[in-house]
Amino acid sequence: MLRKPDWLKIKINNTENFAFVKKVISDNQLYTICSSGKCPNQCECWSRGTATFMIMGDICTRKCKFCATKSGKPLPLDRSEPAKVAESISLLKLKHCVITSVDRDDLSDKGAAHWAETVRKVREQNPNIIIELLIPDYKNELLQIVTDTQPDIMGHNLETVARLTPIVRSKATYSNSLETLRQIALSGILTKTSIMVGLGETEKEVFQTLQDARNAGISMVTIGQYLQPSGNNMAVAEYVLPEQFEIYKKYAFNLGYKYVESAPLVRSSYRSDKITI
Questions:
Q1: What percent of the chain has pLDDT over 90?
Q2: Distance CA 48, CA 230 (A)
């Protein structure tokens, strides 16, 4: 295994905000990708009073090699979840919320209606909030169910370059994900994607991925270092130097992206509350 470099070491500093976020999530029996995905920024974000909600349970029907989220047969949907997410956002007094989900290929609509109900409930209880979604690879009618709710920002992650997608991701394809992003962008909603580096990609492949996403209409992108969450996940091929992240950031801005976060510990929703739209 590669030794983790100093720039990836984080300071644990739990605050009263951290405890409050944990209590709100626990009391409402909700899930976050912060915990399920073993995000290295959980302490920082929760200590700032924010978290990324994960709806439709904590068991995914897919098993991607990079992801720490549990895989298997999910439980039935919690029909009270949209209201509980809306209430939790209200209790946390968020001005910008981020919601993601597991994949639910077991459902006839893959959970699209549940997504839409969640957005409606959040908007109803928090009318002035900026709503950012990170959705599965919905397309066509299923995607429209969600886009019709008019979230402020809508994302879907490419995760990695085209060559590595069949190795890294389960069921999802590079072309399908690009099509999801293209359709979101065509709906007029600000569109976002995220990729990981350190999986064995080349600089040229990252440049091509950024170009592909920009051609699909994406205006927001985040780039971060892949970290192996457990021994069952894909190993890190390389710890990318911070200077290389700056190269990717400059390249993305030169392509015309309006928002770019590129650094080792960046994740798709990292500091999203700092986005101005």
A1: 71
A2: 26
Among 110, 59, 119, which residue's Cα sits nearest to residue 83? 119
Nearest to 13 by CA among 43, 46, 39: 43
Residue 239 pairs in a beta bridge with: none
Name the 3-class secondary structure at 194: strand
Report the pLDDT value the prediction gives residue 261, as an integer from 0 to 100. Answer: 94
Tell me how far the alpha carbon of residue 162 is from its chain's centroid. 19
Span 6-274: which CATH code?
3.20.20.70
Residue 115: enclosing H or E segment and its boundaries?
A: helix 112-125
What would the pLDDT profile of 160-208 be if each residue is shown by its tens digit?
999 999 999 999 999 999 999 999 999 999 999 999 999 999 999 999 9
- CA–CA distance, 56 with 75 (Å, rounded to integer): 9
Tokens representing 51?
């978290």
Q: How many Cα atoms are found within 13 Å in the side-chain-facing hemisphere of 271? A: 14
Average pLDDT over residues 41-68: 83
Quick one: DSSP state of residue 191? E
CA–CA separation, 135 vs 18, rounded Å? 26
